[in-house]
Amino acid sequence: MENYSVTDIMAPVSEYTHLPVGSTVFDAVLALEHTQEEYNCTQYKHRAVLIVNNENKIVGKLNHADALCALDPGDEEDFETNDLLRFGFSGEFVRKLHHKRKRSETLSLERICESALSLKVENLMRAATDSECIDHDANLSMAIHQLAEEKLYSLLVTKGDDIIGILRMTDVFSAVYHTMVEFTGTGRES
């Protein structure tokens, strides 16, 4: 795997849908669904949209999981269960009570979606932080370590200050598979 660089297997940013800062979660969901329809079954599908600022510079990405997090009603401050902690009840007891209460307050999917329509992508996206980025010259061993250490499904590939691609876990896994097959001389029988 040392002979592979990140650039060899990354997906260029030109293949991804770009949404401007200020777009809504609804815009992102539409873009993600459209992206799924664009790719045929022989390709790995892109599962993110890139968020760009006013200068058309990529500032982050939003994936399926990020969009679903927007639909989670969240854990608003629950004063009643927090009071229980002050009265000496165990944290485990309070957590169980809180989860039981949340299950009984389940909202309909329509209501959850309606409440998320106006949320802005910049409030949900994964910003282009150091832990989410990898240099284009890095080798795959470094990428595997970073993906595993940070528990990520993809990394933004940088060249200087610019984001030039996305390194997806599926592509890294494919490179690992092909290297193992080549190394062992075995493979799947067709």
Q: Poorly predicted ranges (pLDDT <50, ≥5 residues)?
A: none
User: How many strand units?
Assistant: 8
Strand content: 15-25%
Spatial order of strands in the largest sheet: 1-8-7-6
The CATH level-2 architecture is identified as Roll
Report helical residue fraction. Answer: 40-55%
Mean pLDDT: 81
The helix/strand series, from N terminus to C terminus, equals: HEEHEEHHHHEEHEEH
CATH topology type: CBS-domain
* Amino- and carboxy-terminal Cα gap: 25 Å
What top-tier CATH class fits best?
A: Alpha Beta
Find the CATH superfamily. Answer: CBS-domain
What class, by secondary structure content?
A: alpha/beta
Q: What general form does the structure show? A: globular
Q: What attributes characterize this protein structure?
A:
190 residues, 4-stranded mixed beta sheet, alpha/beta, 8 strands, CBS-domain
Structure notes:
By secondary structure, the chain is α/β, with parallel strands linked by helices. The protein has a single domain (6-71, 114-184), classed as CBS-domain (Roll). The chain has eight helices and eight strands. It has a four-stranded mixed beta sheet with strand order 1-8-7-6. It has a four-stranded mixed beta sheet with strand order 2-3-4-5. Strand 6, helix 7 and strand 7 (154-159) form a beta-alpha-beta unit. Helix 4 packs antiparallel against helix 5. The chain starts with 5 loop residues before the first helix and ends in a 6-residue tail after the last helix. 20% of the residues are buried. The model has no long low-confidence stretch (mean pLDDT 81).
